[in-house]
Amino acid sequence: MLLTTPNLTQSLPGLPPVVGLNTVFRGSAGHPFLAPRGVWTVGGRLMVSDTGQNRVFIWNQLPATEYAEPDVILGQLDTEETGRNSGGLVGADTLQYSSGLWSDGERLIVADAWNHRVLIWNSFPTRHGQPADVVVGQADFTSNQPNGKGIGVTPTSKTLNWPYGVTSDGEHLWIADTGNRRVLYFDHIPTESFAPATAVIGQPDFTERDYESANPIWPYSVKIGQQGQMAVADTQYYRTLIWNDWRTAANQQADVLIGQADFESNGQNQYGLFPAKQTLSWTYDAHFHGDGLLVADTGNSRILWFDTVPTQHNQPADNLIGHASFATGSENANTRFGTDKQLYWPFSISTEGNQLVIADTGNHRIIIGSLSNE
């Protein structure tokens, strides 16, 4: 049965709703999602990082029921297995806290965050437990220490520390190397393991991991727009960074801030008691769609919609998904009706055409909607 919830993704009264239809999907009936933090859709497929159970699920067609068994499971051998690294040692076929996803329908890239690596399948996986072909961030598939050798070790162009986000334009690769407070850029998707990054964004060189307020402080996701823009969700400073051209990102600070008025400011909801149309709280993703931008304002349990990609700091959103007012957040009035009646800590966003998919992480489910502004 398909569960349709017309009030779940509210928008502002008096404006056309951002989402015209939405349904709830909970994964496998016997072993549903637990805190899914990554979602991606391409070619009609649905990919979900079932983060709390250390696995990635793949459906070859977008599910049409509230529960559906996956066609492919990565990181585990079946839906009943949930242990870190499949209950054993790390390998090419295991996962530990899988997060960000990207695919063009031919390749699949997964941020295997707590193994401090990114896994690449050169051809789209077709069977349960299929091992990855390439590992980035570790010297081999059996290593999983932060920065290759352990906590406190200086990073290099080849190492990773809690990488939560990945993205590509089909040619280049970007990794949100969150624990090293940087984004790594590769001028092509690696085909060999332990490949070095081409450039670093957010640090003066590959060996630094300290931070300045002008750079990403805790970059959780990175996305590239059709016009060449780059968005980085900078969680710890409650802001999203926008570069008008990703090619400039390694050499300059962001062109635009969403959620803060300047680079020195870092207040949750800009130190307000309630959110507003220009504030953020624990933002974990941003996603370009058409001429506009969707921003996962996770801590406020909403997604902000900008009709066009912002061109100035602190620009207010045009609409939202999840509440009927910009002044409502996850700890405000809506919650008394139960979190299942609203978005609750949405972590990840993906679109294909007018199809919208949201990882509604706090509610342990995926929201599948139809964007009415496409």
UniProtKB/TrEMBL annotation:
Q: Organism, per UniProt?
A: Spirosoma pollinicola
Q: What GO biological process term is on the record, naming one?
A: protein polyubiquitination
Lineage at the top is: Bacteria, Pseudomonadati, Bacteroidota, Cytophagia, Cytophagales
Protein name as it appears in the record: NHL repeat containing protein
- InterPro entries, A to Z: 6-blade_b-propeller_TolB-like, TRIM-NHL_E3_ligases
Question: The organism sits in which domain of life?
Answer: Bacteria
UniProt GO MF annotations: ubiquitin protein ligase activity; zinc ion binding
